[in-house]
Structure formats: structure tokens, C-alpha cells
Amino acid sequence: MRDTDNFSDQVTVESLVHGVTELADEVYLSLATIGTALMTLWDGFPEKLRSAPRATDLAPLRGTIFGELEQSGKLLNGAGVVMADGVLADCPRYLEWWLPNAQRGPQRLTLELNPTSEYFYDYTGMDWFAIPRDQGRRWVQGPLLDYACTDQYVCTFAIPVTTTSGTFIGIAGADVPVAAIEEILLPRFQAFGQRVVLVNSEGRVIMGTDPEFTTGSKTSRMDRSVPAVPIDALPWSLHPLGSIAAN
Hints:
The protein is α+β, with helices and mostly antiparallel strands.
């Protein structure tokens, strides 16, 4: 998508939806690769180890995670797996999550996972983890400020990972900066000829071409005379707002 976009043909709402869907498919393809690697690793453990592996037993996943980070360019600024409660013998909660670093190579993300700490990071209640766990489907949460890593707006994509027998063992996930989404989609949005914003299921703006509606802002003041266009691949929708010339 990023190498072949040209706008010699008229940009339509359908082509905008297609562009967003292609971007999401690219992210989810990376997550499927990571998730399959975790499932394969887990199912390949000896039976005794499979019932209570340790965090260090997940180290073989790093090659796959590093490969997806490198291949994605600037699209992913963090990726990995986040484990279900109690599936590891030595860590009630655990992330094998890595951040790209051009100078030093991938850096592992370390968060406070001790429930007694005032800085406890309880990922089990966050939508990007809870919805794949409880509903068995992929999800994306955001835009939200990534206080733990980059202090920039990101969308967190996630898919459930299960064993071949169907036991949930965690999620494969990735953080996608809104800036990276804008870099890919904004030229297409600008060529649309109308103001348009991309909105999440909570009515918050992800990106768009109307300066009144910035990333993270609510759309309660938005003119609803033009119906929103849902994006089937995601809990997002497009909101056309009329001609750019009207502003």
C-alpha cells in the first residue's frame, strides 16, 4: 500500500476504507506471525514443561518479534506477547515486549507488575487484553497516550493466542503510533476533497483532515447529517464532514 499509492483516480469513501483496512491487515499479519510462534513454541514444550513453563522459556520468541519490528519500519514502535494470569510458573504476569532502537537494537519493555506497588500496571483489565481474552477476537484500543514508553498517541492492536487445544495463554500485540498511521493515510485523506476524520468506537478522533478535531478529541460536536461509514476490519468509522473549501 505505501509504495503503490497514487491518486490519479478520484478518491472515494470506499477507497479510504480500503486504505485503513490494508493498514490494519498489515499490523494483524505481524501479530499473527508472533502469535503463531508463541502457539508453536508452547505446544512444542515437553508435557511436563507445558503445564508450568518459566518466563525464560519464551526467549525463542525474540527472533520472531525482532523480525516483525524490523520489517515494519516505523509502523510498529513496540510488539510482543502478553501472558495470561498464572500460565507461567515463576511470573503471575509477564510481557515479552520489545521496542525498536536503531542504535542499540531492540530493547525489552519493563513494567511494574507487582500488585502491591503504587505503580502497578494491571494489563488484565485493559481492553486490548481483556477483549481478546474474553471474546476470542482481535481488537484495537486507542488512541491513548503511551506514558510507559514514548509519550505519544498510539493505537494498541492485539489478537488472542491459544494452544491447539483452545486454552488461552495470552495475546500478541503491537503499538502503532498515530503519527505512523497519519504518514500512511493522510495523503489519501487529503486527496479526498472533503474534510474527513477517522474515529474509534468511543467517539474519539484517531486522525483526519479537519483541524477542529485533533487526535484524542471527542466528536460530540460533529455534524451528523452525513452518516458515518463503518470499517468492517476494525471498531473504527469514517466521518465525512463536507467540502474542504467550506472552511
